[in-house]
Amino acid sequence: MRHSYWRRTCAVLASLAIAGGGAFALLASPASATSIAAETSPTDSTAPVPDTAAPAAPVVADTSTTTLPLFGTTLTVDVSTTPSGSLAGVAVNPAIGLTATKVHPNRVTFVNDEKTGKVHVETHRGSERTGVVAGSLGDITGKGGWSGDLFNDGTTTTVTFMIVAAADGTPDITDLTTSDPNAAIGDVQHAGGDHGSFARATITFTSGIQSRRLTVTAAVIQMGDKTRAASQVSLSKISGTSLPADQAAGDHTWTGTLCDGSAASVAYSVAADGTITAGAVTPASGKANVDGNTLKVTFSDSESVRIRVSNKDGKLRISADPQLRCGRTTPSVNTPTTPDATSVPSRHDGPGDGRNGPGSGVGDPGNHRSGGWGKGSH
């Protein structure tokens, strides 16, 4: 397990590293947002007039705030996501000296003027990752945190931690706490080798039949004659929890948000043997179909949720897999952007299908499928 963590961390830092060294100046005042407008200079009165109407603001289904230390400054990153889990907006503060070099539906990247530091935000199948890259461990040490509504039930959960240098100079994570007294805080894992070292700690949150993990990672890697350091907060998708049948069986309700912002819900019941029975659906136009231990509710051609019950060794696990295609979104940012920030197509662009899948921690977010909408409860 430790070797797997280390290989993934090395791959991540290699992909995120940028050239250069020196100081990363983040000033106290945020910069005003700057958009890159298309040139509209018709040569005569008969030339077509470009459509300058601003696109409709994306529907916001969830928000979170991550704080990470960076060159002596506590950097705050506010993230909002759409019902399908794509990025609706990313605001980083302090913002002066930062430019958004990539603004895509599932990834936003900021780089400082000196090209010595990077801030990145990614979503992937219901998971969310926010991190920073700099030149040395000292550049990323300090206090960090996270806050948000983990299970979309109106409860805000907070997490705090410290990224520090251990006695041997390797990265460490200390003072990991959360406002949820029922959360399970794991031990800090360490690994290292000839090319660097890392520390990682995970908190597991549980709410009824659901669970979610938040992982804090700090790493330093040596690449040739260059050193890079990175830290990241990773939030997994909402997943089912394996429970004894007598605890998992009973009436449940899944709730979520559709592409237009309207509420959706599915009532259902689960028997001790894992059999599932459909109940009321909102909106009423939704169509429910049960096949064995699986219930699928279709709200439209591009909006559905599949609820599946697995039965193993007398324990049931109820998993909700919403699938949404809400169309392409270009997230808003509060910094200047480079001219090509939104113009380069990538496999992350385009509508997400709302499919929730396991978060892989630090790294490439994968394809454009992005979920995270909806919850299940007793």
Helix content: under 10%
Tally of contiguous helical segments: 2
Radius of gyration: 22 Å
Largest sheet geometry: 10 strands, antiparallel
> Which structural category do the helix and sheet elements fall into?
mainly beta
As a percent range, the share of strand residues is over 45%
Kindly report the oligomeric state of this protein: single chain
Q: Uncertain regions: pLDDT < 50 for 5+ in a row?
A: 12-50, 344-373
What is the 3D shape? globular
SSE string, helix = H, strand = E?
A: HEEEEEEEEEEEEEEEEEHEEEEEEEEE
Number of domains: 2
Arithmetic mean of pLDDT: 82
- The count of β-strands is 26
* Intertermini distance: 34 Å
Report on this model:
- With 378 residues, the chain is mainly β.
- It has 2 helices and 26 strands.
- Strands 4, 5, 6, 7, 11, 12, 13, 14, 15 and 16 form a 10-stranded antiparallel beta sheet that branches.
- The longest helix is centred in the first third of the chain and has 15 residues, at 2-16.
- It starts with a helix and ends with a strand.
Summary?
This protein is mainly beta. It contains two helices and 26 strands.
Task: Kindly list the characteristics that best describe this protein.
2 helices, 5% helix, 49% strand, seven-stranded mixed β-sheet, 26 strands, single chain, 378 residues, ten-stranded antiparallel β-sheet, mainly beta, 2 domains
